[in-house]
Specification:
Alpha-Beta Plaits; elongated; four-stranded antiparallel sheet
Amino acid sequence: MPSPSWKAPMLAPDRGFTPHSGARPWPRSKWDMEPGELVPRLVAILAGDAVNYSRLMAGDDQATIRALDTAREVFRRCASLYAGRVVDTAGDSVLAVFNTAMSATSAALAIQSDLNAKAEQASADRRLWCASFFKEV
C-alpha cells in the first residue's frame, strides 16, 4: 500500500498542532494569536439608504427626520430579529452586519415589507423609501 502524500500533524511545544512545515493551521484558535491581531471572518453586509432624502429635507425637514427615525427603528428591529446588528448610521444611511447572506436577505425583505406598509400611510410626495444593498465579505 503506498504511503499517503500528506504528513500527520504533530504537536509543537509553543503553537499547538502544526504541520511538519512549521506553518500554523487556519483557522487558528484565539489562544494562538498575538495580542491585537485581527481575525478574518465571513459576514454579510446590508446597507440601506433613503431615496430622495435631500428633496424631502428641503420640503419639510422635521417630518423627514421623524420618518427617518422611524425607518431606522424598523431597520434595527428587523436586523435583531434575524441575528444581525446595526453597526453604523450616517446621514440617511444605515449599515448592518449578519452572520449569513440568508439572514441579511430575510431581514431586508422584512424591512422593505414594514417600510412599504408605513409608506402607504404617508402622502405620495412624502414617502421615504429605502434601497438595500448586499455584499458578502
